[in-house]
Amino acid sequence: MNVEVVDAQASSFTQGDGSSNCASDVATPTDKNANKVNLLGMTRKELETYFETIGEKKFRAAQMMKWIHQLGVTDFNEMTNLAGALREKLSRVAYVAAPEVVHREYSNDGTRKWVFRVGDGAGSLVETVLIPADGRKTLCISSQVGCALDCSFCSTGKQGFQRDLLPAEIIGQLWVANQSYMEDTPVGERTRTVTNVVMMGMGEPLLNFEPVVASMQLMLDDHAYGMSKRRVTLSTSGIVPMIDKLGDVIDVALAISLHAPNDELRNELVPINKKYPLVELMAAARRYVERGAPLTDKSAQHKAVQAKMAQKAAVTLDDDQDDALEPSRKKHVTIEYVMLDGVNDQPLHAKQLIQLLNGLPSKINLIPFNPFPHAPYGRSSRNRIMAFQKALSDAGYVCTVRTTRGDDIDAACGQLVGQVADRTRRAEKWKQKIVEHQNANTSKSDPTSSQRREILRTRGS
Fold this sequence. Notes:
By secondary structure, the protein is an alpha/beta fold. It is built from 15 helices and 18 strands. It has two domains: 22-95, DNA polymerase, domain 1 (Orthogonal Bundle), CATH 1.10.150.530; 100-458, Alpha-Beta Barrel (TIM Barrel), CATH 3.20.20.
């Protein structure tokens, strides 16, 4: 494991072997930028408007996006296809800055984790993880400092909630991840490395709607990261009205953090279910799958696809193009299901899940639970997970088991915690609950973890 910690004063990475790797390419907001505009999080439309307001042509937006997002350049003086007068003007009124990296770790299995400071003080830290597998590099991005929800099995939720992230703080995570692979490469030879993005880090993305959508628009834009819409996934715990709104403005892959096949159990594991029960959530998922690309999708990729359709061009299509031409044919929802020992992993739960997903084009991803200190759950045994997978596969579902990666650097699913200056006092209440449980005598009114799992196991049966 390679551990690198950033000295905030020197802005350098201290590596495990004691050497130092300058991190000056990761710009951080300073007092000198207080009256300037950060261009990092602006969409193409926003950049076009901005350049017009400073007396420049709209086409400068595309040039700027390529320099920032494709080549990783943040110094206006290095943007050689911009006129000298424009570069000087931009230096006076704008800047490009990703969030400050205060810590990064590289796992032995190739997983990478970054800790970003997104505000003043130690209580404004968020985490981002990159997972390489099968020729892909998937980045798990955070959308909030902490999480506004409180899923009982997730360590992030126990940290409470401070605030939503800004677009520059969201897309900046992708910028830094790409930069980590090309910082030693000459600018003209740089290529984007991250192939997939999942909005599955800290926070509930649909509760930070506008900044998350703006960031995903950048991910899809050919002048920025140029990702296929099938390679950008938003994961939600089930904010039903916002799922419908998402489908109105952007076309990306959807994942649902389900984790339980009946309302009674899901109310315990994912409390937002009390507001948006499963019947409403499944209906919203079906509506999302059935709709095509939104009318507001004006991306270059969408326009090109529409032109091909109009001309009935004879082309050879890869999976991404085919999905764009016929979005309803292959579109599906990914169902995320954490495996909790004795809680949601019984044959009855598999049967209920099969019934619940009937008629919904879906793929199921079983996630072995990653324990955290004082967690009230344990990980299902491998045999139990395999039996659960077989039941779903036999019913005709594509069902995979997520490989646990990055647990040596606390980067596995459910382990992202950062540091949160909690506005909800949830973290304080969680710590108090732990102390009370440790001090209390075991009784029926205060069940042990095993007793609690037995209570949960029988719910909904």
